[in-house]
Specification:
Strands 1-2-3-4-5-6 form a 6-stranded mixed beta sheet, with helices on one face. The C terminus is likely disordered. It contains 5 helices and 6 strands; from the N terminus they run E-E-H-H-H-E-E-E-H-E-H. The longest helix has 16 residues. Strand 3 and strand 4 form a beta hairpin. It is an alpha+beta fold.
C-alpha cells in the first residue's frame, strides 16, 4: 500500500481486530469519534464487519501500522465513496494513546489522501470533526480537505 517514514497503510487483517475492538470502547476514543451504532461487542461481530467491509466497493478502511514496531496504532477510512462524483469522507482513529503526538496521524492522513487522489482518482475528500476534538482539528488544519483535487465534475453540462 502506501508507506511513509513512520507508518504504512495496510488492509485490515483479522489479527488487528482485538486492538480495534479495545479502542472502540475507550472513553477518550469514543469522545473524539463518530461510530456507527451498535458497536461490535465480540470478535465474531468484528469479523463479520471485516467481511462486509471487504465486500463494500464504496469503502476503504486501512490499518495504520507503525513501521518500527509493526503494530497497528490506528485506522483510516474513506467512506462512503461516491464514485459518480469522485468524492469520499475521511476519518482517522489513532487508538494507541502512547503513540499520539508523534506525527503518526498526520503522516497517515497524508498517505490516505495520496491514495484517495492518486490511487482512487477522487477529486474531493471531506471530513466531519466534533468541535471538542482538538487533535483532529489540528490534523485537518495541517491536511486541508476543503480543497478540491481536480475539477468537481467532468460533466460538461454542469455550470
Amino acid at each position: 500500500m502506501f508507506v511513509g517514514e513512520k507508518v504504512r497503510l495496510d488492509p485490515i487483517q483479522r489479527a488487528h481486530l482485538p486492538k480495534i475492538i479495545a479502542w472502540m470502547y475507550k472513553e477518550e476514543v469514543i469522545a473524539r469519534a463518530f461510530f456507527g451504532d451498535p458497536l461490535p461487542k465480540s470478535l465474531e461481530e468484528m469479523e463479520a464487519w471485516l467481511q462486509q467491509l471487504r465486500a463494500n466497493p464504496n469503502a476503504r478502511v486501512l490499518a495504520v501500522i507503525h513501521r518500527e514496531t509493526e503494530e497497528i496504532v490506528g485506522e483510516v477510512a474513506l467512506q462512503p465513496i461516491d464514485w459518480r462524483n469522485r468524492s469520499a469522507f475521511f476519518a482517522i482513529i489513532l487508538g494507541e494513546e502512547s503513540r499520539r503526538g508523534e506525527g503518526l496521524g498526520t503522516e497517515a492522513s497524508r498517505l490516505v489522501l495520496r491514495y484517495a487522489f492518486e490511487g482512487l482518482n477522487l477529486n474531493r475528500v471531506e471530513a466531519n470533526v466534533l468541535s471538542s476534538n482538538e487533535a483532529s482539528t489540528r490534523l485537518l488544519s495541517a491536511n486541508p480537505l476543503s480543497c478540491q483535487h481536480g475539477s468537481p465534475s467532468s460533466d460538461p453540462a454542469d455550470p
